[in-house]
TrEMBL record:
Binding residues annotated for heme, in chain numbering: C304
InterPro entries named in the record: Cyt_P450, Cyt_P450_CS, Cyt_P450_E_grp-I, Cyt_P450_sf, Cytochrome_P450_monoxygenase
Entry superkingdom: Eukaryota
Presence of the UniProt keyword Kinase in the record: no
Nucleotidyltransferase is among the record's keywords: no
Organism whose genome encodes this protein: Linnemannia gamsii
Cofactor needs: heme
Originating gene: CYP51
UniProt-recorded name of the protein: Lanosterol 14-alpha-demethylase
Alphabetized Pfam families for the sequence: p450
GO molecular-function term, one example from the UniProt record: heme binding
Residues annotated as transmembrane: none
Family, per entry: Belongs to the cytochrome P450 family.
Keywords: Heme, Iron, Metal-binding, Monooxygenase, Oxidoreductase
Amino acid sequence: MLIPAFTKKSLISFIPQISRKAILLRERLQKKTNGEPIEIQNDFRCFSVDVGCLLVFGIDLKSLENNDNHILHTFHNVVNRMNQRLRSILPYWRVVKMPADRKFDESIEELKQMVIHIARDVQGKMRRNENVGEHCILHTMLEVTDSGENALSDDDLFANMMILVLGSEGTTAAMLSWLCLYLSQDDDLQRRLREEVSGFDMETVDYDALNNLPLTEAVIEETFRIRSTVPALVVEALEDTMIDDLFVEKGTRIFTLTRVDGIKNLENDMVFNPGRWLNDDATPIDLKEMRQKQYPFGYGPRTCPGASLSNLEMKIVLAMLVKHFKLEIVDKDAVEEIYTTSAVPQNLRIRLVALPEGHEHAVPVGSC
Ligand code: HEM
């Protein structure tokens, strides 16, 4: 049901919406170029949640412009509580509800009412052939499930919509933060990326241009190799299975590590080197074989449907960052990886230096 929402045609229609949000992210970051270190993952979270809600429901939370937004608080309350529950040893909330759990239930109910209200409103407009605004995933979902045995109940609709927003918010923001960890330590890499995107205009960037960025792609792949934001997946054998010479009985659950093949020799493999993903002539290597060994988006029938979308988002943000800023790490040794719904960098602090429009070299704001 979700797959038709991620066709090439859909992705193309999302690019202008993502670019508009990337421009707002740039404006927000430009206000933070006074030399003070910033916790950039908070800005990426606002970007991701705005893009997620826009592309999934067609609603603009405007959290990039205004953090004090009731729906955003409700949403973060749900995400934060889910993160806490993931670390809890016992699912006590199934037996007894603490005040925070009651708040969680209220927040879920509030989001549910909001989502269903939006969906049924859009559904009515679609049936009456009225304008429903810019394309979003909800439109596709309603088109493929509008009637008969495909018709979705309110619960199904809410579950499908929320998994999309929750699935995209933490993961993409975490990945952008990890990208910054590596970029901010390598001025030359930033310069080469800047060259690669020098012809980009955020207002008009298109699908083909975004698919012709070998170095940017290599930087993203290399970040996934070391820091895939979903480091472990639980899979279950649906039937007795042989994996090489290992017998796996039906029903056995296995923790698979999405990074393990990329990091076997700690000393060499933790070195960030995007060149691993490029041929000698700087063209991208064939990813097919690598995908069997590393799978940051999962593998098989439940693989992440949002992989191509998040790839577009990351490329647009990366292009915006290197075009307009120079990134400098502040105390790289303080950065630690912690696991919430995804693996995120803690204590990542970046100093941003604004680049004058059209210039290749970083000049601190105020000196131009
Ligand atoms: C860096 C960004 C992302 C990463 C690393 C990521 C990773 C993953 C992984 C590992 C899974 C589990 C796959 C499996 O069980 O085999 C997954 C599932 C999923 N992801 Fe993503 N994801 C990202 C972005 C997105 C985006 C942008 C969306 C949607 C807008 C999305 C929507 C989903 C959904 C709906 C599922 C559940 C699929 C199912 O169970 O059938 N993800 N993702």
